[in-house]
Amino acid sequence: MSAFTEVLAEREQLIERQNRITTLCSKTVQNPNENLGKLKELIKFLSDQEIVGSKAIRKLLIPSLTVVFKDILPTYRIRMPSEEEKRQKMAKETKSLWIFEETLLKWNKYHIKLNETVSEFCKDFFQRDSVGQGTLDICVAVHRLCRSMSYKLPPIVAATISVIRITEIINTDSKPKSDKRKPKPKLSRKEFKKTKMERKLEKDMAETKASQARESKIKLNTLILKEVLFVYFKILKTTTDSRLLSAVLQGLSNYAHLINVEYVDNLLQLLTAYINKESCNLLDGLHCIHTALTIITGPGASTALELQDLTKFHNHMYEILGRFIHFGRDLPTSGVTRLEQKDWVVKGYYHLSNTPAAMASRQIAEEKAAKEKIKKKKQAKLAILETGADPRTSVLSLDQIEPPIDLLLSCIALILVKRRRESSINRVLAFVKRLSSLTLTVTDPGCIANILISIMGLMRAYSQTEVLFDSEAEIGGPYIPNVNNVDFCQAASATLWEVSLLLDHPSPVVSKLAHCIFKWGNELGSNDVTSANLVKWNTMPLLPAPKTNDPQEAAIVCNLNTLLSLGTTSCRQTLARIDAQLCLSQQEQQIS
User: Fold this and answer.
1) Percentage, residues of the chain above pLDDT 90
2) Above 70 in pLDDT, residue 31?
């Protein structure tokens, strides 16, 4: 009887708290100015573990707070008064309005933090979920939410479902197994009985090792990926929000290796249309290309290549490289014809006189200069939004430059190394030249060393790159650096003079790799390219192994094969660690 009484008391307490929350919300919405203290009481419920511990209370409290803030928050932007404004005399209504807005912002901050923790909780749950059913339930709920919002959702929602760990799905593209069976070995009766017992034992052990759990996990992963891709594809087709598109493209880039053939054609058409837009920024373009190339080099490659041409991806990658080093679309003279330049020069000299026509010309020139100034300011703001650069220095910080460079090098490996048959030597030379120019733009030694390793990988795959070490050769005309077409930039006439500047780089890793590139280039130029030399360059240690407590990292042999197999991000981190250790040892030697 006592247990029944406790359950009844808990139920009555739950109903009482639910009624209290409902009353506080209705009074706050009816008159926010007078009942702002009711909102404070609602916020305090969030820190009460006994109240928040109840699932029924949480399901009522959090949505109710969202509705309340949505109703009482003003449509204008709230600006807090400065200290001077507070000391000035003001009307009673103005003072009460400022107090109301300040208190409202204070309590809304707690609500915003709560909403942010939901996204972080989901990401953490996705990483910890070993079964997959909870992840599927969240993805279904997100899909339902997106449908109710007509897929016009905040970017944080798309970014949240982009970190789900999916390693294996049901492969519907796999070819049917052939009917040809391997001939069975002839066994004696005793051996046959023994193998039969072993097979039975292995089958029992497989069942105990949760083989069924693995199959159910794969099925759940397939359903999860289906929900995520449906949301992403719908957003790509409907939205024009650049921030939301960036989050979607990043998510697609993460799941590109799992995308099925039935989605390939549709997705490639969407990505191709998006990278051709003028509004496509640098990172979004990289994510588009990485997603498309991962699909092309993965399952369904033959189907994709029958319908898609890789030339547009080559040209767009080349243009993105140019935008990193301020070539191509960002050149100030791009889009200006000779006639416009001549017309500007004539007006520039003509406006010096004081005739009516000259005064009119002066006014036109001033208006044009003002328009150009406004246009440049807009372009600068767009560049800041696009790249995340500091508006005072226009230099990307270290954490901002590392992911784009890693993604860029990964795309180059996909487009030039894995698809060697579709890449002509002129295109390879153009990419190697722009990569060498990029080493003078990037300031981080780890990123520079990573770029040099990629250049060495291309030199290994294409021995014809030795022409870039010949300063006298000019094939087909001079090199044109600001042309964004890989086939018409005359890269065979270029030279890698940028690498010579890196020979005296303060970073020991960058300097050593630059010396290796020059030494290898000289061997290529002397036609000393043999299989023995290639094996030597692939296996020769370029750098000392990193000093670390991790035995796996300590066992790394820093030759070209190992560094290229690590992947772009791991390779950069390894090179940065070695560079820091070498710099520290140099400082210790100087002190001693």
Assistant:
1) 1
2) yes
Query: Directed axis angle between helix 356-387 and helix 282-297, to 10°?
Result: 50
Question: Measured between alpha carbons, how far is residue 148 from residues 62, 141, 228, 245 in Å?
Answer: 19, 11, 16, 19
The DSSP letter of residue 209 is T
Say yes or no to pLDDT of 340 above 50. no
How many angstroms separate the CA atoms of 156 and 52, rounded? 24
What confidence score (pLDDT) does residue 379 get? Answer: 61
Q: What is the pLDDT of residue 175?
A: 46
SS3 state at 130: coil
239 half-sphere exposure, CB direction, 13 A CA radius = 25
Buried residues in 212-231 as b, exposed as e (16+ CB within 10 A)? eeeeebbebbbbbbbbbbeb
- Measure the CA–CA gap between 324 and 386, rounded to whole angstroms: 12
| Single-letter residue type at 77 | R
| C-alpha 44: how far from chain center | 38
Answer for the pair 396, 387: CB distance below 8 angstroms, yes or no.
Answer: yes
**Span 57-82, pLDDT tens digits:** 777 877 888 888 888 888 777 777 77
**99-117 b/e (C-beta count within 10 Å ≥ 16 → b):** ebbeebeebbeebeeeeee
Grouping H, G, I as helix, E, B as strand and the rest as coil, residue 331 is coil
Distance CA 274, CA 265 (A): 14
Q: Which of 157, 112, 153 is nearest to 138 (CA)?
A: 157
Best CA proximity match to 399, nearest among 385, 387, 384:
387
- Cβ-based neighbour number of residue 362 at 10 Å: 17
**Taking the model in full, what pTM does it have?**
0.62
- Give the span between the Cα atoms of 372 and 260, in whole angstroms: 48
Angle at 590 between CA 584 and CA 591, to 5 degrees: 90
| Cβ contact 158:235 at 8 Å | yes
DSSP structural state of residue 506: S
Say which residue the tokens 């993805």 belong to: 139
Please determine, for residue 425, whether its predicted confidence score (pLDDT) is greater than 80.
Answer: yes
- The helix (run of H) or strand (run of E) holding residue 104 is helix 92-128
Give per-residue pLDDT as tens, 525-562: 665 555 555 556 666 666 766 665 555 555 555 777 78
Q: Could you tell me the CA-to-CA distances from 560 to 374, 437, 452, 576 in Å, in that order?
A: 49, 21, 11, 16
Contacts of 259 (CB under 8 A, 6+ apart): 229, 252, 267, 295, 298, 299, 300
498 or 560, greater pLDDT: 498
Instruction: Fill in the amino acid letter for 330.
Output: D
Helices (H), ranges, 540-567: 551-554, 560-565
